[in-house]
Amino acid sequence: MEPTDRYAAELRQGSELAAGEADAIWGWDGPAGRLRADRRAAFLAERCGLRKGVRCLELGAGTGVFTERLARTGCRLVAVELSPDTAEICRRRVGDAAEVVVGNVETGEGLEGRTFDALVGVSVLHHVDLAATFRATFSLLRAGGRFAFSEPNIANPQVWLERNVGWIGRRRHVVAHESAFTAHALRDLFERHGFVVDEAEPYEFLHPSTPRAVVPALTRAERVLEATPLRRIGGSVRIAGRRPDA
Predict the structure, then answer these.
(1) Which of 6, 108, 118, 193 could form a disulfide with 56 if both were Cys (CB 3.0 to 4.6 A apart)?
(2) Residue 19: helix, strand or coil by DSSP?
(3) What angle do CA 219, 225, 229 make, to 5 degrees?
(4) pLDDT of residue 237
(5) In terms of residue numbers, what domain contains 27?
(6) Between 215-225 and 31-48, two packed helices, what is the crossing angle to 10 degrees?
(7) Three-class DSSP category at 110
(8) Is the pTM of this model over 0.70?
(9) Which CATH number fits the domain that encloses residue 95?
(10) Residue 4 to residue 26: CA distance in whole angstroms
(11) 239: which DSSP letter?
(12) Cα separation of 129 and 122, whole Å?
């Protein structure tokens, strides 16, 4: 798909999400969803050492579910989002705790002249042309700067079905060009573009639709499952590392 067609599809989706209940659609507003969001934000913050004074760029801020959480670290947070509609929701959500920029991570639009100590994001890299994003946006990461991302795992049955069965993908609000990764493939992509990868692994069996009463038992079961070969089909993959020192 041509870049202009992909951007148009993303903007349409942004408008649809902004007009509806975006957090409910993605499952972030339920008890399991909030726990998943908290865990992702904690992973990003810990791996990138987010704290007061650290210049952090969040790629693909969406409606601000993670922007809000990342801002609590006190870092100097810039959140970039392609859709003006979802960016406005994000802006209202975080107030002056973060700078929300309408821009394009594949071209660097909206980020010109900036440098960052950390780059983070949740479920954004599978939307973009990664080679273009490495050139335009990851180049803004200073030497020695850190990155951390969480992405869908293509080895997970639900994720695979969403990407390969049209009606399931449409029902799950997956646009046609969305991809997904294995941990190995994601590591390889970062390393081929010159980044040092400290960790890249599948994780998570807590589904966002999990009823409140079942969440504690399932989180305990996760620890067992993630110690077995079944880990490879966890719902997500996470990756963290750094840009080499100059």
Answers:
(1) 118
(2) helix
(3) 160
(4) 98
(5) 3-242
(6) 50
(7) coil
(8) yes
(9) 3.40.50.150
(10) 25
(11) E
(12) 16
Mapping DSSP to helix (H, G, I), strand (E, B) and coil, where does residue 171 land?
helix
| Residue indicated by tokens 């969803």 | 33
Region of residue 173 (left: phi > 0; alpha: psi -120 to 50; beta: else): left
Helix, strand, or coil (residue 89) = helix
Token pair listed for 6: 């992909």
Please answer whether residues 204 and 168 qualify as being in contact, where contact means their C-beta atoms are separated by less than 8 angstroms.
Answer: no
Is 106 within 8 Å of 132 (Cβ atoms)?
A: yes
Poorest-pLDDT segment among 7-11, 94-98, 169-173, 207-211 = 169-173
Structure tokens belonging to residue 97: 């705790």
Res. 240 pLDDT band, cuts 50 70 90:
very high
The total of structural domains in the chain comes to 1
CB 8 within 8 Å of CB 73: no
